[in-house]
Protein 1
Amino acid sequence: MNWGSWSEFFAMGGYALYVWGSYAVTLGLMVMEIVLLALRGRSIHGELGRARERGGP
Amino acid sequence: MRVCPEKTVNWSAEGGRINWFKYSSPQTFFPLAGMLAPWFGALAAVFCVAGLYIGFFIAPTDHQQGEAYRIIFIHVPAAWMSMFLYLVMAFWAGVGLMFNTRLSGMMASALAPTGALFTFIALWTGSLWGKPTWGTWWVWDARLTSELILLFLYLGFMALQAAIDEPRRADKAGAVLALTGVVNIPIIYFSVRWWNTLHQGASVSLTSAPTMAATMFAGMAVMAFGFWFYSIATALVRVRCIILERERATDWVADYMRVPK
């Protein structure tokens, strides 16, 4: 185990800005991609559903 | 308007062997992708959690860089994925160009945003790693510049496809760009050998043992698998969106929409 306490863990030996800045942006972008994909799927399903209700293709 | 030609062709498996060409049609690949995506998503989550655990709690502190080196567990896997996804994207683009199969072009389009994402992550984390270790956020050396060009290739591919209304023409134009850009991949990979760069050489290569602690390497490798599975999952979900968007006028999409979900 590398860390004596949680505060030591979060401090990252003085490199918190660089380490957590990397991980936070990576996580944020991956979550963003998943959300955008979900919205894109919902959008096309909604569009096709409305087209079906109108009776068209 | 192209109608579904697959309807007239018997794609079914014969003699008990799986006919892989069956899945080269968007119609048959659509449900398969839907079935596989959650499994790859789950694998991605498991591998990323395991990789982060190894990276933060098992891998020791680096005696030169202290804790700053822990950026490696996303930086290197993201950089690997940025190059690997480009090759896969160019492969599908090339297959589409050669055989004129619709699904290949859709696969290439589905991979581009995820490839661009990992390229950006590689650059971003590299910058945050460069500041404490090199003393600079950015330097115009061969490795960094060629990776930046990779980001522009991805973005150029996406912009070019978005600018062309007719999907099949967009696929062809994108494929030419993607295949031309492949030349950049060996340049990125070998840049640290061909030129004097600030970026360090490869710690891990195909021809020699990793020059790092086994647990550090393990964390990196597990994260790389996590990112790989994540890429497969997102590409499969995205290709399903693209299939529906492009095939909206076909009978099978109408049939699919009739099934209550």
Note: Chain A has a mean pLDDT of 90.
Protein 2
Amino acid sequence: MIAVVCVDDRNGMLFHRRRQSQDRLLREDLLSRCPGRLWMNAYSAKLFTGHEVRLAVNEDFLSLAGPEEWCFVEDRPLAPHLDRLEGLVVYRWNRAYPADVHLDLDLSDFRLESGQDFPGSSHETITREIYRRTAVE
Amino acid sequence: MAKKKRKLTKRQKKQILSAIIFVLLAAFYLWQDLTAEVPEGPDIQASQSVQTEQGGQFGPADQTAADSRGVTLADIPDYSGDPWVELNNNEPEFEPTDYTVTSYEEYGALDGLGRCTTVMACIGRDLMPTEKRGDISSVRPTGWVQAQYDFVDGKALYNRCHLIGFQLTGENANDRNLITGTRYLNVDGMLPFENLVADYIKETGNHVMYRVTPVFDGDDLVAQGVQMEAASVEDSGEGVLYNVFCYNVQPGVEIDYATGESWLAK
């Protein structure tokens, strides 16, 4: 599976059980790039009103997503699923937010394949980074 | 030869009597003025109108209509390396009747020592600035004893620190909204929390109840820190909810909070 995360300047993801931020143009970018269905839980699904046909919503989505399927992850640790991760899409807010949950992956286990800046609907510049998992020896 | 006693004329007696009466009346009105009840500030709980208050209607200098519900230094853990700490399980203490979808901003009157007090707002897109920030150097908050340290970002120890950030309500040189705050308080403490609120409002168009209270120890001129509370309104806190205290410290620097003077930490 390919995990999609949104992080702040310090790889923070959540604060007080709530997402740090959201952006309509980020979601449009994500949906335009995601091949097939996008896995997520019910909390995240509320962001994608009007795009339900593209979604696969299940609280156990990280276990159910198949090879090369994309998962939008906001409030779950990813380290327990490292062995199933083929890649990462990291959206960076380029902002400082408070955080009490951070991305729990070491990005040195992944190879950066591409990076692209684009303007968000409420963020000046969002950076999209696409990573591939480096081969495990 | 003995001096002749001069008697007062009728006219002189009348003048003296008039002067006495005048003094008594003046004293009476002055006494009334001093003992009269000071009118209370606007009842923000009942307010349905947009208010942008910058002074004059907030009651006695030691009390505002937007007073925080009672954080004291005793409630705040000592600084232990993190720029902020959660209070009350990160739950703000707004009253149910505080919540509104009508934007407003209120800046409490300076207290008897010229220090800022609680500021409170319902922030919506309509309050956010449309111009770049202006010059605030005309404001000299209490305890403003600037010092330079090479290891501080920007070198200056103190910033004129907005209680409600400029990106939220566009206030510039408002002396009721600026305190002497360290660079660390401003950037590592408060700014991330302001960003969270600002970007939420920009994206959703919703409103956020927002209250910031500087906390002073006794008659100190520099605050120990600020309490920041926020709750998103239309989604009942699902988007934004926090209650934190940000420490007005600068790692590597000792501060005399009574005066604002500082020196290198040992």
Note: The first strand of chain B starts at residue 52 and ends at 53.
